[in-house]
Amino acid sequence: MDATSQQSARALEPLAYHIALQDHLREHEPQVWDKVAGGMDEAELAELRDTMLRNTYRLEEAGHPQVFAALRTAMERLGIEAPATLYQANDGTMNASLIYVPGEVHLTFFGPILEKLSEAELLALMGHELSHYLLWQMDEGAHHRTSRIFDHALSFPDAKPAHRETARLLSLYTELFADRGAAIAAQDTAPAIAVLVKTMTGLTSVDPEAYLRQAEELEAKGGKSQGHSHPEVYLRARALKLWWEGDPQLEDWLEARVQGPLSIEGLDLIGQYRLTALTRGFLARMLGEVEEGSDEIVTQVKAVFPDFAADEEKLDLAKVSVEKIDDATRDYFIALMFDLAMADSDATDVVMLAAAKTAAAMGATERLTGSLRRDLKWTKARADKLVAQAAKAA
């Protein structure tokens, strides 16, 4: 890959989740989308400046030439042109943050972070924080608007779990975006990873390559991020390295490591609509498996989806495979099949056989037999007989 191709492959663009969430809000919450605006008014901006002057030390270039040199280089490499003000807070924890003001860059540093970074690492730190500014400026401020919508939603004590999960995922993906900006500013991943590790540990000297080996070892154990506002550092390091190298499986990797399998116990807003669509397709498939759906079964389906149509698209079971959904969601689909089986006593045996065949195709036979014994009080022999009949029919 030549230099031009590499630069194109590493272009800093919003991640797929940023775009999907923005599209979701525009389509399903247009009133909320139109109501929330971004930015600060003059009074809020004046209050911010007054607060920062009272509670921080404002850095000036004459006293901190290396810091401002790194800032200018990072801004140039990220294509940002805006007046910038830097502050040092009195918090002892190593970190940095951006206060977003449209058209102005305001960065705050915490603890001894400026003293513990090399020249390249300082570039990476600047690139990370500036990337937050860049994202909020993109698409005429649309991504900042998305963020503000969830800031507002979470400010209410009765915020729904789906709102909290959506805000969490948005924050995780935003940090991954900013990590990419750190690597672009430093023109390498090593300084960006070093900043992550130094911020986590407080150390003055770290080995980014050694930490990447550690991250690969942890990744082998699988599992999704449990981070609330930032993904775990080892995931961030791996994600950045894969992006920098142009890994073609990156999007699938990110979905698995950041979001994980679809879980009915932890749905974000997009996941809610996705599960609804899967449910419709699943029910359509079950009706097709039963062949002649009785009036009672159709009535059961229409109790969930009043607009359910005879030509509803049937679900491809690959979309609910072991890798795509978790056990709680598998149990949900099993419960749906039980509901259909109980809707018409004359069709129970036929529906249960179809359920056993479907569960086998989903890799959920053990979940099915467990539910039969626990929820329907079947004996082990009866459950095993149904599974055998389904295997023979298949």
Structure in a nutshell:
InterPro entries: Peptidase_M48. The chain has helices at 3-9, 16-28, 30-35, 42-55, 65-78, 113-116, 119-154, 161-186, 189-201, 208-219, 233-244, 250-259, 269-290, 295-304, 327-343, 348-362, 365-375, 380-393; strands at 57-59, 84-88, 95-101, 104-110.
Task: Explain what you see.
65% of the residues lie in helices and 6% in strands. The protein folds into 2 domains: 3-259, no CATH class; 269-393, no CATH class. It has helices at 3-9, 16-28, 30-35, 42-55, 65-78, 113-116, 119-154, 161-186, 189-201, 208-219, 233-244, 250-259, 269-290, 295-304, 327-343, 348-362, 365-375, 380-393; strands spanning 57-59, 84-88, 95-101, 104-110. It is mainly alpha-helical. A 4-stranded mixed sheet has the order 1-2-4-3, sandwiched between helices. The radius of gyration is 26 Å and the shape is elongated. Keywords: Hydrolase, Metal-binding, Metalloprotease, Protease, Zinc. Pfam families: Peptidase_M48 (PF01435). Its EC number is 3.4.24.-. Its cofactor is Zn(2+).
Low-confidence stretches: 1-9
The helical percent reads 55-70%
Number of domains: 2
Largest β sheet strand count, sense and barrel closure? 4 strands, mixed
Helical stretch tally: 18
Computed structural class: mainly alpha
H and E order:
HHHHEHEEEHHHHHHHHHHHHH
Quick check: average pLDDT? 93
User: Could you tell me how far the N terminus lies from the C terminus, measured between alpha carbons in angstroms?
Assistant: 49 Å
Percent strand equals 5-15%
Number of strands: 4
- What is the rounded Rg? 26 Å
Strand order of the largest sheet: 1-2-4-3
Family: Belongs to the peptidase M48 family.
Protein name: M48 family metalloprotease
GO molecular function: metallopeptidase activity
Cofactor: Zn(2+)
